[in-house]
Amino acid sequence: MSNYKQDIDNFASLKATQNGTWDRIDPEYAARMKVQNRFKTGLDIARYTAGIMRKDMEAYDADPSKYTQSLGCWHGFVGQQKMLSVKKHQGTTAGSYLYLSGWMVAALRSEFGPLPDQSMHEKTSVSSLIEELYTFLRQADARELGDLFKELDAVKASGGDTRAVEAKIDNFETHIVPIIADIDAGFGNEEATYLLAKKMIEAGACCIQIENQVSDAKQCGHQDGKVTVPHEDFLAKINAVRYAFLELGVDDGVIVARTDSLGAGLTQKIPVSTSKGDLASQYNAFLKTTPVNSVADLNDGEMVIKQNGELVKPERLPNGLFRFKENTGVDRVVLDCVTSLQNGADLLWIETEKPHVGQIADMVNAIREQEPKAKLVYNNSPSFNWTLNFRQQVFDNWQETGKDVSAYDRARLMSEEYDSTELAAEADAKIQSFQADAAREAGIFHHLITLPTYHTAALSTDNLAKGYFGEDGMLAYVRGVQRKEIREGLACVKHQAMAGSDLGDTHKEYFSGEAALKASGKDNTMNQFDV
């Protein structure tokens, strides 16, 4: 017996015990509503998706071609449409996640209005967006299952064999997928990090990404002025997230430890070293210092530390921050990553200034000398000029191998005049294969784009507005949007149904029977799209 039919039988048995008071309850309708609401709580989702992510990580370890991907989503509808599209075009949601970007929460979801990526937005807006995303994904499940129930009813009405449709219902693939959720630098101290992590997990997050910047001085990873914290401070926050997972019963929750050290030249404080070569000592070894030979070398209020048997004073800026030595970013990244993995992190995130497989691979290989299974979540960031970066990479490679590059101006390679050239074609091919190449050669398990839907919303709106308020008028919408939706099979062309009108009609019929006032009659203009 199928699970669906078993549920019907179970509800029928329960109904029989109610002495006739449930006579108007249809066991099959109850079974349908149960199937359409597989995940009752956010914790159900977190536990389910954590299992998916762990299996995907194991699969990647065995075969680097099995990397995973996600796009950043700033609204539940965006996440829903993304997963509907993935399932429609790829045939499965496997290997596809959602990314919740702190940048987009700040820019698009704050009650203060658009804000920079500096942890100034309301911290609860992060957990609220996770809940919203999963609400929309569950609605996508309910909608598609509703279509299967209609198919089942049609087969029943014709006297056909229902087993094939019941199998579709029992084997339905959910749109619920893992979310990698950005907690920034923890929004405060380790207790604040723990409290917010709990909210995020309760909303459904199985994976939390945390960075090693100072919480109250946090900057976007692709801007200047980044300040990192000592390892001890960062590890305390990793511990806080792990305790939150364990407390809530998500024992296999995933923690992504992000390091911004490659582009960060400052630290907030000098940690206390208690033994030679400990973490604090290793961190302090990167500080930019000058020798202290006597008290005369010091000004009032200056700090002195002992390093390698000598007294030195760290370079301190007027704001009290300390500067690192130049060209130590890579070494600090490696130490950050090894330390994080050895203290509870599951995945790494190295924020880089450009998308370069060789650069990433060099760092990952150094990390893997100590942690062989190290793997990354990588930000395929829109902050990179991908066209210019890859054209310049090809230019440099050609120049190194002796190929004639006299027809190209390296500084102007972004120019449209180069679009049809051999160099541009090779660069585009490298962009196309970047994720597969980096997964194979640089240990990248998960590729994401932080804020793609921010840019697609801007571009599509610009194109529509340009035509609609210009000469095209209504044709701009019809030709550029609606006609494409119809011909490309987008479900949201029937926006009333996408917003839940069909589901609502079904429920009204369950609850009220023939007295139900439904929206889907002959005068519903959505019927015009049944062509």
UniProtKB/TrEMBL annotation:
BP GO terms, sorted: carboxylic acid metabolic process
Record note on cofactor: Can also use Mn(2+) ion.
UniProt binding sites for Mg(2+): 182
InterPro entries (alphabetical): ICL/PEPM, Isocitrate_lyase, Pyrv/PenolPyrv_kinase-like_dom, Pyrv_kinase-like_dom_sf
Catalyzed reactions: D-threo-isocitrate = glyoxylate + succinate
Pfam families documented for this protein: ICL (PF00463)
UniProt-annotated catalytic positions: 220
Required cofactor names: Mg(2+)
Entry keywords, A to Z: Lyase, Magnesium, Metal-binding
Record-given protein name: Isocitrate lyase
GO molecular function, one term: isocitrate lyase activity
Protein residues bound to substrate: 101-103, 221-222, 258, 379-383, 450
